[in-house]
Design goal:
The N terminus is likely disordered. The N and C termini lie far apart (47 Å). This protein is α+β, with helices and mostly antiparallel strands. Helices cover 18% and strands 14% of the residues. The chain has one domain. A three-stranded antiparallel sheet has the order 3-4-5, with no helix packed on it. A two-stranded antiparallel sheet has the order 1-2. It has three helices and five strands; from the N terminus they run H-E-H-E-E-E-E-H.
Length: 205
């Protein structure tokens, strides 16, 4: 009887968890492998542009993470909890890690995307935190668009490449960006959040 009750309780908990997730509108998380930096790409960034304090390595992987929400729902916040009083481990940590290092083009900021006109100067492969936006508007129009851009999966992008200007030899096809604006990103960051990985070449955020 005890075993049956435990199994029933576990099944009920799983069912309740699924119901809560569905009620919140989360349908899935999609990780897109956006681009693998080639030697030719790295040469353009490190030698020709030569603006970042950190060299980008050939073979570096660029990923985008998408939150798939049900119609009528929006992502409101992403959060974790700090270390509890008297404890040493957070019950709900929030961290982003890599087995190598994050690459950052520190000319144009480390936390949110730079202006769209900077995408062809290295920010296409930069590390930053944003919701929706791949580039903010502003600045003189270069070879690409200076309009604000929203990020979409490359296989859904139908307007080609409006932002990289063809300067990266290994990056072909569409750019995964479409003109549009997203709500401003608001930070509420406590002292336990370490952003140095996005301002340098660390491995953990």
């Amino acid at each position: 009887m005890k075993k049956t009750f435990k199994q029933l309780l576990a099944c009920s908990a799983l069912l309740w968890g699924a119901t809560v997730a569905q009620a919140q509108g989360l349908e899935g998380i999609i990780v897109e492998e956006f681009h693998t930096v080639t030697q030719a790409d790295a040469d353009v960034i490190n030698d020709d542009i030569a603006g970042s304090s950190y060299a980008i390595a050939p073979g570096s992987k660029v990923y985008r993470v998408y939150v798939d929400m049900a119609p009528g729902y929006k992502l409101a916040s992403v959060f974790g909890s700090g270390i509890p009083l008297g404890g040493t481990v957070s019950p709900n940590p929030l961290s982003i890690n890599t087995t190598t290092t994050f690459w950052n083009d520190d000319n144009f900021g480390g936390e949110v995307p730079g202006q769209t006109r900077r995408i062809d100067e290295g920010t296409a492969f930069d590390t930053y935190i944003t919701v929706g936006s791949t580039g903010i508007a502003g600045g003189a129009v270069g070879c690409g668009s200076a309009a604000a851009q929203l990020g979409i999966r490359r296989n859904l992008d139908t307007d080609g490449d409006l932002t990289t200007c063809g300067v990266f030899p290994g990056f072909t096809g569409n750019d995964g960006s479409i003109p549009g604006t997203a709500p401003s990103l608001t930070y509420n960051i406590g002292g336990n959040i370490e952003l140095s990985a996005l301002n340098a070449d660390g491995s953990t955020l």
